[in-house]
Amino acid sequence: MMPTDSATSISLVQQAASLVSGYGFKPLYMILTLWLIIVLWKIRAPDIRLVRRGLIAFLSGEAFCALNYLIFGGGSDCLDALHALGMAIMGGLVGWGIALFLDGRVLRLTEGSPSCVLRRLCGACPSAEGRPGARPCRLRWLIKMAAPAAAIFCLMPWCLPIRPLRLTADILGARVLFSYSDFLQVIDFRIYPAIALASLSVAALRIWRGPMSLTNAQLPFFAGAGLLSFSLFRFLLLNAFRDAPAWMNFWEETTELIFVLVLAFFLIPHRDRLSGKKELRS
After folding, report:
1. Is residue 126 part of a domain?
2. pLDDT of residue 264
3. Which of 12, 104, 26, 120 is nearest to 64 (CA)?
4. Distance CA 10, CA 23 (A)
5. Taking the model in full, what pTM does it have?
6. How far is CA 162 from CA 93, 152, 185, 224, in A?
7. Three-class secondary structure of residue 239 per DSSP
8. What would you report as the CA-atom Rg of the chain, rounded to the nearest whole angstrom?
9. Checking DSSP bridges between strand 174-180 and strand 165-171, what pairing results, if any?
């Protein structure tokens, strides 16, 4: 079912951007995502499993988005909501996986051991050496501040009213609907930030409880971070390009293509080492 609204005239540059992002960037990063999932499939390390599951959620969401435009001309709120959910889940799982990857394989910041990459900067580490009355690790203190700091940004989408967007334009002879209904905006800019605030608050409470607190806080922290990152991403795009929604779609698709490319270039060269390395504790 295609949109029947009267068409709004947009520039040829915006039409070209829509064509490139919709028929070039989207299928390209969907194919790359599927390939990345297949390449990483046999790696059982917890950090790579999280990344892989996040990519599966991302690809599922993008498939719903493609179906929305191919079948309903962009007019299905249900499919768009599923698309958004996939992106939010991806943000949490991939963020969690990359954090474990960097900490466990590269930086070793939270181990409190001589392998911590900051030991050269800090010198002797009273926390790791177990000295009586030793001051707590400053890095751990910064990590403890991450959840409360992120929780503050959950309030940002609440600062502007819900204003639905519906614009139909001719893109090189085809009728295209740019739609962001009040129903979807309530989910993205009210419900998701509220859940993120609750999750990050739980994470903040767990982080401050004791030596095992960082591990116990991972699930609520990255669940909240995924929802928050998606909400802020959509919020900023919408309010930057409300009068030119073709650019909103273009930059969303461009950002997603860059994300998949960076992830592939980051992980693929090391897939043999990843598959052979002793699994991390999650």
Report:
1. no
2. 92
3. 26
4. 18
5. 0.86
6. 28, 20, 7, 22
7. helix
8. 22
9. antiparallel
